[in-house]
Amino acid sequence: MLNFTSFRWKAIVLFIWISCSTDIFADNQFSDIDLLEDKIIGALVDPNVDVLPLIEGLKSFLPQREVLINGKVAYYTAEYYYYKENWAEAANFYVESLKYFTLLNDSSKIAAAYNNLGLVYSFQGDFDRSLDAYSQSLFIELNLNNQIGIAQCYQNMAIVFANGNQVERAIEFYSKAADIFEKEKDMVEVAAVNNNLGALYAELTLYDQAEAHYKKSISIYRSLNMERNEARVLCNIGSLMVRKQEFEHGSKLVERALLLMKSHGDGIGEASAYTLLGDLYHARKDYQQAIFLYGRGQRKAEELNLRDLQAKIAQSLYYSFKAMNQWQNALTAYEDYVRMRDLLLAENPDYNMGILNEDLEQKIGERDFLIQKAKTRERFFHGIIGFVSIAALLGFFIASNRRRRLKHQKDIEMMRKQLMRDRINPGFIINMLVPLREMLNSGETEQAVKHLDNVSELIRKMLEHSCEELIPLSREIDFLKSYFDLQSIRYNSKIEYRIESDLMKNADEVLVPSMLTQPFLEQAFSGEHFTGTMEHPSVNIAFMRRGNLLEVIIEDNGHDAAVYRCSRLEERHKAMRVTIATDSQSRSAFRKKQELFGALHTEERTSGNVKQGRRVRFSLPLLTN
Fold first, then answer.
1. Which of 55, 102, 453, 593 could bridge across to 621 with cysteines, CB 3.0–4.6 Å?
2. Measured CA angle at 519 (ends 516, 524), to 5 deg
C-alpha cells in the first residue's frame, strides 16, 4: 500500500513564509534574497533547472547574516537531495541546517527541518529516529499553535505507526490530522489522509471503509488536477481489487498508476507499484511473472534505499520461489529477508515493525533472540506506561467522583431544607389562625376553640410528616381532609372536595412522599382567582395506579390555568424526586425506580368551548411497604 507523506510543496512555502516574517533585513538586500529563494523553490520542482547554482548564490549574502544564510543553504540543499531521492545526503544537510536554526533560536524553522528529517529517516527504514524527529517537530508546533504543522506531524507519525501494525495509534493520529486539515480547509492534505486511511482499512480487510476513503481522496485530487497523487490512490485501489479477487480490474488500475508515476518521476510509487503487480500475479498463480515484477521493484527499492520495502519484497520472493519448488532461490530470498529484517531491528530496537507479523514468521515459527528481546522490552515498556496511565486515571476518577458526590450531597441537603420549608409554611399557619381572631371578636368562643383544636391537629400532622420522606397513602388522605376542612373555615365557604383512589383497600401499604399535594393545593388557594370570587369552589384529587406507577391528578374549578405553571412547583417536584430516590438504604427499591418519576403536566379542563377549570398531574413509582 502507498502512504502519503506530508505535502512537500506546502512545507517549502511555509518555510519561506516564516523566513519572510522573521528575518527582515535592514537594507534592500532582503528583497534580493527573497527573490532568489522564490527561484530556488521553483527550480526544486522543475527537473529541467539546475538548482544547485541558485543555492550557492545565497552565499553572496553571507556578510550580512552568516548563520541565517548558512542555515538556508543547508536546508535548500537538503530539499534538493530529497527531490533526487538521495536520502542519506538529504538527512545530512537537514541535520546541518538544524545546527544553524538552533543558534538562531528560530522555532518555526527548527520544526520544519525536523519534520522533513523524519520523512527522510522513515524512507531509510530508520523508524526510531523518524519518530523522534517527528516528536521534536510536534512539540515545537504545539507550542507555536501552528495547526497545519501539528496536523502534518500527526499524519507522518500515523504513517510510521501503520507500517508497524500499531493500528489503533495510527487511526488515532490520522483522525487528529484529518480533523485539523478539514477545519483549515486544506483539501490536498484531507485527500492524503483519506488515502492513508484507505490503505490501513484495506490491510484490516475492512474493504467497504477502505473504498469509501479512496473515493473521497481520488475525487479531491482529480478536482485539483494532481495526477501524481491520483496515481498513488489508483495504485492502492488496484491493490484493493486484488484483495477482493477482482484481478482484471486491479491489474488495469495498477498498470495505469505505474505509467503516471514513471511520467512524473515518482520513484517510491514506482517501486511500490511493481511490488503490487507482483502480488497480483502471485495471487493468480503466475509465479514467473510475479518474480519478474518483484525483481523490478527490488532494484528500484535498492536504488532509493527503501530498506523496509526491500525486506517485504524479499519475503514475497520467498513465497513465489517456494510455490515453484525452486528451493535454492527460496532459501536465498529467505536469507535476504532475515538479514534485512535483523538489520532493521538492530537499528530500531524499540520499534515493532509490521514485517514481524507476516505469514513467513507464522509458518516457519522462527523466533530468534533479537525478536524476543524486542518484544519483551516493548511489552515491559507498554506495561509500565499502562500501569502509570491506569494509576493516573484511577486517581483522577476517584478525585472527580468524590467531588461529584460531595456536590450531589450538598444539592440534596439544600433540596431537603427546601422541602422542609415548603411543608412547614409559616404563611399557611398564620392564614389558618386569622379566622380564630374573628371568631373571638364576634364572641364565638366555642367555635373558636373547635377551630383552634383543628389547627393544632393539622400542625401536629404537618410536623410529623415533615420528619418523614415517605408516609402511607392513608395518612396523606387523612391530612388532605383536615386541610380542606380548615380551608372551608378560612374562606367562610363550604369547599366541595372529592378524594378518590383505586388503592383505598391497600392505602396503609402504599407509600407516597409526605404532603406531596400540599404545594399544589396552596398554589390553587392563593389569590382571589379561586375562592375569593367563587360561590362553590371545588377540588378533586385522585391517586390512580397505572401499572408500576402511581398517577396523581389534582383538579379545581379555578379560572387561571397558568396557576400551576410556576418554577416553584417545578423545583418542588424535582426536589421531591431527588431526595426520595437518594434516601437511606431502605429505599433502594425507590432509588432504582427514580427514572419513573413523570414530568409535571398542567392543562385547562373544558367542556366544548366552556372552561371547566384546571388540572395538574404527574406520576411517581408505586412503592409498598
1. 593
2. 125
pLDDT band for position 362 (50/70/90)? very low
Provide the 8-state DSSP code for 493.
S
Joined grid coordinates for residue 601:
403536566
| % of the chain exceeding 70 in pLDDT | 76
**C-alpha to C-alpha distance for 305 and 623, rounded to whole angstroms:** 77
Residue 399 phi, psi dihedral angles, 5° rounding: -65, -45
Distance CA 203, CA 165 (A): 9
Does domain 1-144 correspond to CATH entry 1.25.40.10?
Answer: yes
H/E element holding 78? helix 66-83
Residues 6 or more apart whose CB falls under 8 angstroms from that of 364 comprise 334
**Entry field: residues in the chain:** 625
Question: Average pLDDT of 149-176?
Answer: 83
- In which region does residue 185 sit, left (phi positive, over 0), alpha (psi from -120 to 50) or beta (all else)? left
**DSSP output for 162-185:** HHTT-HHHHHHHHHHHHHHHHHTT
8 A C-beta contact, residue 582 and residue 414: no
* 424-624 belongs to CATH 3.30.565.10: yes
User: pTM of the prediction?
Assistant: 0.47
What SS3 state is found at 402? helix
CB 236 within 8 A of CB 198: yes
Predicted confidence (pLDDT) per residue in 303-361, tens digit: 888 877 888 888 888 888 888 888 888 888 888 888 887 777 766 655 544 333 343 23
Q: In what order do the strands lie in the sheet with 496-501?
A: 496-501, 538-546, 549-556, 610-621, 601-607
Number of other residues whose CB lies within 10 A of the CB of residue 176? 18
| Whether the Cβ atoms of residue 470 and residue 587 lie closer than 8 Å to each other | yes
pLDDT band at 38 (very low <50, low <70, confident <90, very high): confident
CA-CA-CA-CA torsion sign (13, 16, 18, 20): negative
- What CA dihedral angle connects 21, 24, 28 and 31, to 10 degrees? -30
Give dist(CA 339, CA 333) in Å, integer. 10
How many angstroms separate the CA atoms of 160 and 180, rounded? 19
Contact 313, 304 (CB under 8 A): no
pLDDT tens digit sequence for 251-267: 888 888 888 888 878 88
The stretches of 264-368 forming alpha helices (DSSP H) are 267-283, 287-304, 307-323, 327-347, 359-364
Sequence letter at residue 8: R
Q: What is the spatial distance between Cα 155 and Cα 178, in angstroms, rounded to a whole number?
A: 8
Enumerate long-range contacts of 249-254, CB under 8 Å, 24 or more apart: 250/280, 251/277, 251/280, 254/280
The pLDDT-based confidence of 594 (bands split at 50, 70, 90) is low
Strand partners, 618: 552
Residue 621 DSSP SS3: strand
Let me know: does 107 contact 136? Beta carbons within 8 Å.
no
CA dihedral 135, 140, 143, 145 (to 10 degrees): -90
Q: What DSSP state is assigned to residue 474? A: H
> What confidence tens digit (pLDDT) does each residue in 270-299 have?
888 888 888 888 888 888 988 898 888 888
